[in-house]
Design a protein that fits this description.
single chain; 597 residues; alpha+beta; six-stranded antiparallel β-barrel; 27% helix
Length: 597
C-alpha cells in the first residue's frame, strides 16, 4: 500500500487488501473514526483487520470522500502493462499479438481459419488440437500471433490480471448485419485493453452487404473510419472468398510498425499462461505466450505456485521447438502441477530457486486470499443490500479454460429475476484442490467440478469440512443441479385457501391464549386445525387456530353451512371477541417455487 497526495486528488494503491490502520492513515482519519464508521455498517473491526479493495471503496463512498481514488496495485507475480513498457535500449521488434473478436456468426472463425490456411508457416502438420488458444502465421516474412477468443469471460480474466497482451483487436462485423451487442462489447474490450482497433467488414460477397451503412453504425459507437476523417482502419473483406485478406494482414503489420512493438530478448524468459490442462501420459500441458526473453527446452520456469523444467515445447501445429522468443505461443510440458490461466511465468536459473519462488508465490497467494477477512460481499450483506440467505456461492473447476468459461457463462444466464444472487467465488482449471475446499468451507459454497476428478483425500477433506463437491461430466446436468439449488433458496410461496365464515352468537371464555365461543356457519365450513381471522365489520382483530369443534355437545371434525356449534380456538394475543363478530376460516400452506414463477 502506498499513497500520494496530489493537488485535489488523493490516490491510494492497494495490493489485494489493506489493514484498518493503513487505510485510516492513508485517509488521514483516526483509527477510531474509521472503526466507528465500519461499525455503523455492521462490521466489528480491529485495527489490524484487513479489508478487501471493494470494502475499502465502499467505506470511502460512505464517508463521502470524493477526492480519494482507490487503485489496485498489481502484485509482483502478475504481468502488468507497466513492465511491458520498461524496455531496454536493446529491445527488438516483436510480432504483434492480435485478437479477432465480434458478434456471433459474423465470421470470426472463418476469418481466422482462412488467414491461417492462407499463410501458415507450415501447413502440412495441420492437426490443430481443440485446446490450442493461440496461433502464429507469417506474412511478408513477418510473424503475426493470433489469440483465439474462447469467450469474453477469458478477456475479462486477462484484463483482471493486468496483462494487456493484446496489441491489436480485429473487430469482425458482418456487412449484412451491422453492429450488434457483441460488436459493441468487442469495441469496449479493445478500448479497455488499450489495444489498437482494425475493423474487418466481412461478408461483402453477400447480397445485402452494405459497407457504408456498417461504417455508419460503427461511427455511432465512436469508431470513425479513416475515409471519414477518423483514425480507424476499416476494411471490406470476405472471409469466404478471401477478398481483402491480404490488405487486412498488411494493415495489421502497418499498425504494428506504428506502435513500434518491441521486447527484450536478453532477459530471462517471461510471459503468460494462456491455457492449461492435464493430459494422460503427459501431465500438465500448458500454453504459454512468451512476452520477453527466449524460452528454451530444459529451462526452469515458475508460474504462480507451480514450477517445472520445460520437458517438451511445440508450436501451435505440434512442431517441436527448441526455443521461443517474444510473441510466440507455445505448448509446453514439464510443470509439476497446473498453473492458472493468466499467471505470469518467469524463467529461473535452477530448480532450487524455481521451487523456492513457487513456494513463496503459493504462500503469497494463500495469504492474499486469507488476509482479506472482510470482503465486499460480506459488507453488502451486512448492509442488507444482498440477503445472505439468497446468495448461491460456487467455485467452478473445469478440465480446460473453455469448459470453465461455458459453465460460468451458462450459470450467469440462469434467470432468477434478481431473487437469488449467484456468487462465483473462484474458478479454475484442473482437479478440485485442498485450497478450493478451504475457500469453500464455512460459507456454504458448493464446488462444481466439470470433467475433473476429485482426489480421495480432497473428497475426505471436503466431507470433514462440510463442503459439497458436485462433479459432473454433462453440462446440462450441472446446470439443472445449480438451478434447483437456487430454487431451494427462493422464498416459499404462501397460499391461502378460504374455507367459510361463521357469525359469533355467544362468547364463553377469553384468555390471552384461548377463545371459546359459539356461532352459526354462514357459508362454507369450519374445520378443526384451520386458521381463523377474527373480523368486526372490515376491521381485523387477530388470528386464531381452531382447536376443537362441537355440534350439539358432541365433538365434531367440521361444521357446515347453517350448522350451529361451539368452538375452542388458540390465540397468540388476547382478542376481545363479541357477539356479531365474523370468524373467517382458512388454510395457509407454503409451496416451493420454481425459478421464473
Ligand atoms: P463466428 O461465429 O463469428 O465465428 O462466425 P463463423 O465464422 O462461424 O461464420 C458464421 C457463418 O457465416 C458461417 O456459415 C460462415 O460460412 C459464414 N461466413 C463467414 N464469413 C463469410 C463471408 O465472408 N461470406 C459469406 N458469404 N459467408 C461467410
Amino acid at each position: 500500500m502506498n499513497s500520494e497526495i496530489g493537488p485535489q486528488e488523493k490516490i491510494i494503491r492497494i495490493a489485494g487488501s489493506i489493514t484498518v490502520d493503513e487505510l485510516a492513515g492513508a485517509l488521514g482519519l483516526s483509527v477510531t473514526a474509521l472503526i466507528g464508521e465500519l461499525f455503523k455498517n455492521g462490521i466489528v473491526a480491529t485495527i489490524n483487520q484487513r479489508l478487501d479493495f471493494e470494502t475499502a471503496q465502499i467505506m470511502i463512498d460512505e464517508l463521502g470522500l470524493k477526492n480519494v481514488r482507490l487503485e489496485r496495485k498489481n502484485t509482483a507475480a502478475k504481468l502488468t502493462d507497466e513492465n511491458r513498457r520498461e524496455l531496454s535500449k536493446d529491445a527488438v521488434v516483436r510480432p504483434p499479438v492480435v485478437a479477432v473478436m465480434g458478434h456471433v456468426d459474423h465470421g470470426k472463425t472463418t476469418l481466422l481459419d482462412n488467414l491461417l490456411k492462407k499463410k501458415t508457416v507450415d501447413t502440412e502438420a495441420g492437426g490443430i488440437t481443440q485446446h490450442i488458444s493461440a496461433y502464429q502465421m507469417e506474412y511478408d516474412d513477418r510473424k503475426i500471433t493470433f489469440l483465439d477468443t474462447p469467450g469474453h469471460e477469458a478477456f475479462a480474466a486477462i484484463r483482471q490480471h493486468g496483462a494487456m497482451l493484446t496489441d491489436i483487436v480485429v473487430i469482425v462485423v458482418a456487412a449484412d448485419d451491422g453492429v450488434k451487442p457483441q460488436t459493441i462489447e468487442a469495441i469496449k474490450f479493445a478500448q479497455g485493453a488499450n489495444a489498437k482497433i482494425i475493423v474487418a467488414i466481412n461478408k461483402i460477397d453477400r447480397e445485402g452487404a452494405d459497407v457504408e451503412r456498417t461504417k455508419a453504425g460503427l461511427a455511432e459507437h465512436g469508431l470513425m473510419p479513416e475515409a471519414w476523417g477518423g483514425d480507424i482502419i476499416m476494411l471490406p473483406v470476405s472471409a469466404k472468398t478471401g477478398e481483402g485478406l491480404d490488405k487486412l494482414l498488411e494493415s495489421i503489420l502497418l499498425v504494428a510498425d506504428i506502435e513500434e512493438l518491441k521486447a527484450d530478448v536478453e532477459i530471462p524468459a517471461e510471459g503468460l499462461v494462456i491455457e492449461s490442462h492435464m493430459e494422460t501420459g503427459k501431465g500438465s500441458v500448458v500454453n504459454l505466450l512468451v512476452t520477453g526473453g527466449e524460452l528454451k527446452v530444459g529451462e526452469f520456469v515458475v508460474a504462480g505456485s507451480s514450477y517445472g523444467k520445460i520437458r517438451t515445447m511445440v508450436d501451435f501445429q505440434g512442431k517441436p521447438k527448441g526455443k521461443a522468443g517474444p510473441s510466440a505461443p507455445v505448448t509446453v510440458t514439464g510443470f509439476k502441477d497446473l498453473p492458472n490461466f493468466g499467471d505470469k511465468f518467469l524463467e529461473y536459473a535452477d530448480e532450487k530457486s524455481a521451487r523456492k519462488a513457487a513456494l513463496l508465490n503459493a504462500q503469497g497467494i494463500a495469504s492474499e486470499a486469507a488476509s482479506a477477512n472482510v470482503t465486499s460481499t460480506d459488507l453488502l450483506r451486512m448492509m442488507n443490500v444482498v440477503d445472505n440467505s439468497k446468495v448461491f456461492n460456487v467455485i467452478i473447476k473445469g478440465d480446460v479454460l473453455g469448459s470453465v468459461t461455458s459453465v460460468v457463462d451458462s450459470l450467469k444466464m440462469i434467470d432468477t429475476k434478481g431473487e437469488v444472487t449467484l456468487n462465483i467465488v473462484a474458478t479454475g482449471v484442473g482437479d478440485v484442490t485442498e485450497n478450493d475446499v478451504y475457500m469453500a468451507a464455512g460459507d456454504n459454497t458448493v464446488i462444481y467440478g466439470f470433467n475433473v476428478s476429485v482426489p480421495t483425500n480432497i473428497a475426505k477433506l471436503a466431507a470433514r469440512d462440510g463442503v459439497e463437491v458436485r462433479n459432473y461430466r454433462i453440462i446440462y446436468e450441472l446446470l439443472d443441479d445449480a438451478r434447483s439449488s437456487m430454487e431451494d433458496l427462493l422464498d416459499e410461496e404462501i397460499v391461502e385457501t378460504e374455507l367459510g365464515h361463521m357469525e359469533v352468537m355467544g362468547v364463553f371464555r377469553i384468555t390471552k391464549t384461548e377463545l371459546i365461543a359459539g356461532g352459526k356457519v354462514k357459508d362454507g365450513r369450519a374445520e378443526v386445525g384451520s386458521l381463523v381471522r377474527v373480523k368486526r365489520k372490515e376491521e381485523e382483530l387477530g388470528e386464531a387456530k381452531v382447536q376443537s369443534l362441537e355440534k350439539e355437545h358432541i365433538e365434531a371434525k367440521e361444521l357446515i353451512e347453517n350448522e350451529i356449534g361451539g368452538l375452542a380456538m388458540q390465540t397468540e394475543k388476547k382478542i376481545n371477541l363479541e357477539k356479531g363478530d365474523i370468524l373467517e376460516f382458512f388454510r395457509r400452506e407454503t409451496r416451493k417455487r420454481k425459478l421464473g414463477e
